[in-house]
Amino acid sequence: MIELVAKRAGMAAITLFGVAVVVFVLLRVAPGDPIAMMIGPGATAEDIVRLRASYGLDQSLFNQFWIWLGSLVQGDFGTSISRRVGVGQLLLERLPATIELAIMALLVAIVLGGFIAIIGTLWRRHWSVGAVDGVNGLLLAIPEFVWALALVLVLGVALPVLPLSGRINPSLPTDFKTGFYLLEALLTLRFDLALDLARHMAMPVLALALPLAGIIARVLREALGEAMMQDYVTLARVKGMSELRLILSEAMRNAVGPTLALTGVQFTFLIGGTVIVEKIFSYPGLGNMAIDAVINRDFPLIQGLVLMFGVIFILINLIVDFAVVAFNPRLRHG
């Protein structure tokens, strides 16, 4: 296990360095000047030169990269060009909102996908399995942003039962000690705030969860179908065990492993999907800020955001690797 951790940590460091190099080079070769987004119409040439020097943009690309990398090692992500605030501070302010949104979407996807997979396995020899296949196909075919727009039209405009934007009602107190508003509201028994936060999260969570639920349902259903044909399941069926109990207590144990591995990979795509979904719902997370940073050509903020997403993806993959090993005795003792 120690060897596995050391190997994964080394690969993570190499991956992050590669991400840093790629994002730095791509931003510099892309057309556009971030200083042009900052200066007013009356700015002089001296003002432009001074601004470029203050952000280090007058240095060579090689020097800019090593200055930035050296600052990263010291925990300094630089200063946002468009917001004039430290990038590290901005990331820490927005990260909890995105984490809460992604985890809630993952939980909803697991519950919904698991339910569809179990129903499909129970009805596998019944004509009504076609309805399950249709629902699953619909979930797989429609991407997150289309679900988001559909939910806005239905639940936000036609049937205005949920708020269209934001994270919490501005009229409610927001004296939270951490950025994890929903978790803190539940732990402190402030259920009025928790309910309002849940209502604001409902549509973006559904938009992110529905496509992932379709993937989980498909993979889990296939794994359950294979497990239901094994001899130990047949023996349990002969002993009089019901189909539902067979699925939950016998087949599910062997079906969790492959489903868990794919769910972890797909969860990284869900994190990426927060970029567009957060923008549609004006949700104050990393994704919303990422689009603003790209529009404003905010080099330091974009670099910090890409590295933050890279760290999140690597951590998710590490957790999934260890979870798969924990659920598979052959890997654990191999």
UniProtKB/TrEMBL annotation:
<keyword id="KW-0812">Transmembrane</keyword>
<dbReference type="InterPro" id="IPR035906">
    <property type="entry name" value="MetI-like_sf"/>
</dbReference>
<feature type="transmembrane region" description="Helical">
    <location>
        <begin position="301"/>
        <end position="327"/>
    </location>
</feature>
<dbReference type="InterPro" id="IPR000515">
    <property type="entry name" value="MetI-like"/>
</dbReference>
<dbReference type="GO" id="GO:0055085">
    <property type="term" value="P:transmembrane transport"/>
</dbReference>
<keyword id="KW-0813">Transport</keyword>
<dbReference type="GO" id="GO:0005886">
    <property type="term" value="C:plasma membrane"/>
</dbReference>
<keyword id="KW-0472">Membrane</keyword>
<feature type="domain" description="ABC transmembrane type-1">
    <location>
        <begin position="95"/>
        <end position="324"/>
    </location>
</feature>
<feature type="transmembrane region" description="Helical">
    <location>
        <begin position="201"/>
        <end position="220"/>
    </location>
</feature>
<feature type="transmembrane region" description="Helical">
    <location>
        <begin position="145"/>
        <end position="166"/>
    </location>
</feature>
<comment type="similarity">
    <text>Belongs to the binding-protein-dependent transport system permease family.</text>
</comment>
<feature type="transmembrane region" description="Helical">
    <location>
        <begin position="255"/>
        <end position="281"/>
    </location>
</feature>
<dbReference type="Pfam" id="PF19300">
    <property type="entry name" value="BPD_transp_1_N"/>
</dbReference>
<dbReference type="InterPro" id="IPR045621">
    <property type="entry name" value="BPD_transp_1_N"/>
</dbReference>
<dbReference type="Pfam" id="PF00528">
    <property type="entry name" value="BPD_transp_1"/>
</dbReference>
<protein>
    <submittedName>
        <fullName>ABC transporter permease</fullName>
    </submittedName>
</protein>
<keyword id="KW-1003">Cell membrane</keyword>
<keyword id="KW-1133">Transmembrane helix</keyword>
<feature type="transmembrane region" description="Helical">
    <location>
        <begin position="101"/>
        <end position="123"/>
    </location>
</feature>
